[in-house]
Design brief:
- It is built from six helices and 16 strands.
- It is globular.
- The relative contact order is 0.16.
Length: 264
């Protein structure tokens, strides 16, 4: 199952060709029973990106209607949804010209939870405009590919000051045996990251947002990665092992389960 809709209708070749300009932004989410955890955060992300790139906003009621219609057209209530905002009328030669935006909704099979521990290699890289989930994903996937070629499962990014920021398509949390640390180098802040932080706060769990140096990873015994597909343990970063990652996962996963599913 994989279908794409544009502004509520089955996408044409013309609509899909707009993606070749590579100017736009997106968000990805898991749908279960026609509901999404952190739907409000995804909508906030989409509004932020649309304002930043096109100086306009989205009609959220219309967008949610398009999402429901896409699921109905595919005959499913569980799915992976990707919402991409771009414009078929955008001209890179005149980027300040006002243009209407178009919304692509991609419907694919739901992604099952990931449980396998991943080994990561550190990479010196900072994504451009990290506060936006834009379409510039080449470097993310290339660094993942190179990590796999080197015998790892994925890559984690380190900024120019030596601070850990994020993974290729996910955020991470670290555990020192007492509290959860959320690395705060410039990165795309994820919806699942925020849901976990809210869950910890609601339970009075100890957590902190702080800069984490790559050289200081030996201070931590556990690590997890998270994105809209779920949470999974990190076994090591470079040569630094994290023997307590399963314990951290066991603590955080129930907190994510308490976050409400918001109907589309």
């Amino acid at each position: 199952m994989s279908r794409i809709f544009c502004n509520g209708y089955e996408a044409t070749a013309e609509a899909l060709a707009a993606a070749l300009t590579n100017y736009g932004h997106f968000t990805s989410m898991q749908v279960r029973g026609s509901a999404v955890q952190g739907l409000d955060l995804h909508l906030q992300r989409l509004q932020q990106g649309t304002q930043a790139l096109f100086s306009s906003g989205l009609d959220e009621a219309q967008l949610r209607g398009w999402l429901r219609a896409a699921l109905a057209a595919c005959g499913v209530v569980d799915a992976s949804l990707r919402i991409t905002v771009l414009s078929r009328q955008f001209d890179f030669r005149q980027p300040l010209s006002p243009v209407p935006v178009d919304v692509l909704v991609s419907v694919a099979a739901p992604v099952p939870p990931a449980d396998r521990a991943r080994a990561l290699c550190s990479v010196a890289y900072s994504r451009e405009m990290p506060h936006l989930k834009h379409l510039g994903t080449f470097a993310l996937f290339q660094h993942r590919r190179q990590a796999l070629q080197a015998g790892y499962d994925d890559a984690v990014f380190v900024d120019g000051d030596g601070h850990v920021s994020e993974g290729t398509t996910w955020n991470l949390a670290l555990w020192d045996g007492r509290r959860v640390h959320w690395p705060q180098a410039p990165a795309l802040r994820g919806t699942t990251e925020q849901l976990l932080m809210d869950g910890l706060a609601s339970q009075g769990g100890a957590q902190t947002r702080s800069e984490v140096a790559l050289a200081a990873l030996d201070q931590f015994s556990g690590a997890i990665a998270c994105n809209s597909a779920g949470i999974w343990p990190i076994s090591r970063i470079d040569r630094q092992p994290f023997p307590d990652s399963a314990s951290l996962l066991a603590m955080l996963r129930p907190l994510l389960d308490t976050r409400p599913w918001q109907p589309l």
